[in-house]
Design a protein that fits this description.
heterodimer, A: alpha/beta, Rossmann fold, 11 helices, 13% strand, B: alpha/beta, 7-stranded mixed β-sheet, 7 strands
Amino acid sequence: MIVGQGGESKENIDLPAWPPKVIPVWFLESREWQPPIMTVPLRPAAEGPAGRRFARRLFPPSNFPGHRLEFGPDQPLKLDCGVELAPFTLAYTTLGTLNADRSNAVLICHALTGDQYVAEHHPVTGKAGWWEQLVGPGRVLDPKNYFIICANVIGGCMGSTGPSDLDPATGKPYGLSFPVITIRDMVRAQLRLVDHFGIDQLFAVLGGSMGGMQVLEWATSCPERVFSVLPIATSARHSAQNIAFNEVGRQAIMADPDWCGGNYLAEGRNPHRGLAVARMAAHVTYLSEQALHQKFGRNLQDRGRLSYGFEADFQVESYLRHQGSTFVERFDANSYLYITRAMDYFDLAAEHEGVLAEAFRGTKTRFCVLSFTSDWLFPTSESRALVHALNAVAANVSFVEIHSDRGHDAFLLDEPEFHKVLAGFLAGCAAHRGLKLG
Amino acid sequence: MLDIVPNGLQTARAAIRVDLQFIADLIRPGSRVLDIGCGDGALLEYLVNFKQVDGRGIELSQGGVNACVSHGLSVIQGDANTDLATYPSDAFDYVVLSQTLQATQEPARILADLVRIGRAAVVSFPNFGHWRVRWQLLARGRMPHTAALENDWYNTPNIHLCTITDFVDLARVLGTVIERAAILGPRGRTMPDWAAGSLGNLLGEQAVFVLRRRDK
C-alpha cells in the first residue's frame, strides 16, 4: 500500500506500485541532449497531468481542501529577520472536535517536505495522508478523542504564505524577496492559529524531523501553552552535517538555469531538474544503508545486463529518479530553499549562551523524546543530548530509542513499537490532564 | 495483576515484589521520586498510582523502557553510569536504586550522585555475605549461585558485589548518613531486630538502606 508522500518520503519501503515500467529521466539530463520522453511544462497551460499540477502550483492553491486562515495587513507576523509579513495566510486541516473546555487539541507539525494533509488525501498526488498510520479512526491519534490540527508551515507551498505567493507590493511572486523564515516564525504562525481556536493549552504537540524542531520551539518559547510535547527523530540544533546536506540541495536548485535567480515563476519556468536532484540527495539521507541494501541490493532495473552507459541500470538509481520526478510535481523550489534554511538556523541553545538546559528551565511540560536506531540524519545521540539537557532542569521526560532499520523515515512508517510507545505516553498524559479517552 | 486504579491507568499492577513493596513503604506519598534501573516500571507504577508520587525512571534495556513509557510512566533510556551526572542537585525527594548498585561500574561515584540528586537515597542490593554465598565458596570453592545471583561468573552483570558490612563502610567513607537500614531475609521479609550487625550480614539475603548527605 502506498501511503502518502510524507514529511520526507514514505514510499521507500512498502511500494508495490514501484518500480514503474517507464522511468522518466528527463529531469536529470542537460538540455543539450534531453530525450523527448516528457515535455517539460514551461507554462501553466502545458499539457499533461504534470502540466496541470504545475499550473495549480503557479496560483495560490486556494481551491485545495482544508481551511485557510487569513491575516490582513493590520495583523502582521513579526519574523526573526525583522520583517513584518503581511498579509499572510495559514492553510490547515483539522480532524475531530474541540471539546467544551478546549483541552483535547493536538497540534501536528510537519517535516521539511510535508504539509497539512496529515490524514487525508493529498490534492496534488492523490496519495493518502503522510501520517495516516498514526492519525485517524482507530489509530493512536483518534479524532474521536482529539481535536487534531495540522498547518502548512509559513514559507511552504501548499496554501500557507510562501515564496511562490504574490507579493502584494509588486503584484509578482515573492521569489527571493520573500523574507527568510525560521522555525520560531513557523511556531509564531501556528500560535496565531491556536489563538484563533481559543485554545489556552494544547494537549500535545508532536512532529518528526523538522516537525520535531517546531515541537521543541513550542516547548521553549511558549511552555505554558503545551501540556505535552513529542519531539521525534529530531535535534535541538541542526548539525553541521545536516546543514551540509541542505546546502547540496540548495546548490542543485540554484545551479538549474531554470531557477532564474529565484524568479522562475515570473519567467514561466520551473527548476525541476535542480529540485529533483536536491530531493534525490536528501532522500538518501532519509534511508539507511541496510534499508537500501535490503530493498535494492545491486539489482538491475528492467534489464539483464549492464548498459555500459549512464541510464538507470540499477534499481536504486531508478528509484531515486522516481522519487525526484514525483517530488517536483508537488513542491516549490524556492520553498525548498527557505524551509531548509529555517532548519539550518535552528539552534535552541544559541539564545542561552550555548547551554541547552537553560532553554527548558522551569518547564512543566511533559516530554516524550523518540529516536530510531538506524537514523543517521538525526541520530540518537542528538536526542540523548536533548534528554540530558531536560534532566539537568529535572523536566518530566520520557525517552525511547526505537529499534528500526528504516533510517530517518521510520517515523513516517508502520513501526508498531513506535506507535505503542506514543499511545502509552499519550494515555499517561491524558490521565494526568484529566482527559477521558474513548 | 490487572486492577482499576485511581488515576485511570487500568493496567496498573496492584501487587509488586515484596522487596519493592518494602521500598515503596519507605516513600512519602506525593513526593518526587527517581527510580534508577526501573526495569519494567513495577515499582514506579505502584508509586505513581498508589502514592501519587511525581515519578521518573532510568532504564538501560530498550524492552524495559518501552514497557514503562507504554504504561504512561516518565522513563528515559539511559545508563546510570553516565547519565546521573546530568541531573541537578536536590532534584528529587527520593532516588531509588533497587538491586542495581552491584552492576554499576563505579558504585562509590553512583552513591555520591544519589545523595546529591535526592534528598534521600534508597538503595537495595543482594548481600554477598549471606551464609549461603559463604558456604558455596567455602565448601565447593566455586562462585556462588543463589536466587539473587543466578548467573555464572563469566556472564553476570554483577561486577561489584558487596556485603552489608562493606556497604556500611562505603557509606561512612562517602560521608553519608545512614538514616535507616533494613535487612531482608527469605522471601523479602524484614529480619527481626536481634539479627542486626554481623548476624544480619550472615542471615540477610538483601539489604535496603536510606542514605542522606551529611550536610542535610
